Amino acid sequence: MKVCLIGLPGAGKTTIFSALTSVDMGKHHLQEKRKTVPVKDERLENIARIYNSNRVVPVVLEILDVEVREEGFIPKAIPPNVDALIVVVRAFEDPAFPLPQHLVDPLKQFRSVLDELILRDLVVCESRLEKLEKSRGSLSNVEQQEHRILQKLREVLSAGTPLFTIEKELLESERKIISSFSFLSIRPMIVVLNLDEEKFRQRSYPGKDGFQEFLKDLGVAYVEICGKFEQELTELPSEEQQDFLEDLGVSEPSIVRMVETIYRHMGLITFFTADRKETRARTLRSGETVLRAAEKVHSDMARGFIRAEIIKYEDLIEYGSDRALREKGLIHVVGKEYLVQDGDIVRIKFNV
Question: Is 120 a member of any domain?
Answer without folding.
Answer: yes
